[in-house]
Amino acid sequence: MTDPVALRFARQICAAREAPLPRRAMEVARSCILDTVGVTLAGMPEPCAQILLETPGIADGPGGALILGTSRRTSMLDAALVNGTAAHALDFDDFTGVLGGHQSVPVVPLLLALAEEHHSSGRDFIHAYAVGVEAEIRLSRAVNHHHYDKGWHPTATLGIFGGVAAASSLMGLDTDRTATALAIAASMASGLKANFGTMTKPLHVGLTNRSALLACLLAARDFTAAAGVFEHRQGFFEVFNGAGTYDEGRLFADWCAPWEIAHDDIGLKQFPCCGSTHPAIMMALKLRAEHALRPEDIAKVEVLPHARRLRHTDTPRPQTPLQAKFSVQYVVARALLDGTVRLKDFEGEAHLEPAVLALLDRTTARAHPDMADDAPQQWGAEVIVTRTDGAVLRARLDQMVGRGGDNPMTERELWSKFEDCASRSLTREQTAPLFERLMTLEGAKDMAQVVRQMQVSHLQRPQSRADQVSFAAASDQDVPETTWVP
């Protein structure tokens, strides 16, 4: 008889632990980890993370795992929950089109808690991260695009298996226990795209981190689970996808040859909103720069993304900052107005500014008629601007999954984003040294010391966005500018 899928999956994970990580894979992994730490620090003051911290029974028990950007320590499981939620709070984290979601946030938060507890090395941390990404994306190749189109949130429903792969690697679980952890996780996988645009979307990621880590901790203690949980007629493949909509063989093909983390489809986010909107943003910025467009010059804006990118970003009039992150109309209007899209554009009532609303009245979105659902490239968009003088301006991009592949963010761009993000939780004095440490993470001997650089005292920590403004003003007076330049 053929061995169960979970056991074969576990064998691949265990083999990947021993596979060498090429230089490019190491460098991309390090950048993704750095980026995830930055967006987690930026997300910690957000309501979704703060409400968790205020909820009785969450993160109020003893433990040594840090809630990033705070002085608070708790259990590994609760740290994974809160840090995981914060990591996705701003939707500013990296992503990949193959997964149809965000590959790092289901992995990095739980690994930070685990590595801190075990005093793991930076090199082992990076390798475990790469194994986690390998597992979740290989699984996505077996079930997408049907899984994605059906309404599941792959960052959570597939990312949980990446979390298991990463944690089991760092813990050194054997093949049988890794298979058990995967089987336990199959019953914990959850996340519906219907909750996009609400606090529940980042909560998916927090729960995914906690559940993946819990699955490994239980498996290590010989908890039991069904060996055939993936292929059973009421198992993961049939329930989450359905007959004829998955190919389990693709889960096992070509592991680490090359590593998924080195794939051109891995991209960092340059803009703090849904990655599906980024191709349209780039084309709006291109038109604005090339034609010196002013709001009064614009009679009409047409946004034509690939259909798969539009289904969850067609929000003509966002009513909340979170909805604005999933409005291709809003982000294109913002790009045309300001020449950029920034964190502050999704705070307070920025989405209700009169100039934005006036341009939204002239902006429409529809699926691009020439970008087929089954096309190999599904991250494209065209933006058409009709000027008041009747001239029609067009800009089209067929594929852009964030900044990666042959168009990576430079070290200076990484620093700029990291500084903007980390400064929302850390002092200015802490940010540059942390960036330097993360840029050389493979040389760290003890991850507990690295995580300690993400801690602040209670007096240092901004408690709200209003407090952050006064905190930043005080920092401007009391803390000298960093002299470090990447």
Descriptive overview:
Belongs to the PrpD family. This is 2-methylcitrate dehydratase PrpD. Residues 459-486 are annotated as: Disordered. The chain has 486 residues and is of the alpha+beta class. The strands form three sheets. It has a four-stranded mixed β-sheet with strand order 6-5-7-8. Strands 1-2 form a two-stranded antiparallel sheet. It has a two-stranded antiparallel ribbon with strand order 3-4. It is 48% helix and 7% strand. The protein has two domains: 5-267, 2-methylcitrate dehydratase PrpD; 275-397, 2-methylcitrate dehydratase PrpD (60s Ribosomal Protein L30, Chain: A, 2-Layer Sandwich). It is built from 21 helices and eight strands. The chain starts with a helix and ends in an 8-residue tail after the last helix. α1 runs antiparallel to α6 (122-143), α2 packs parallel to α18 and α4 (76-87) runs antiparallel to α11.
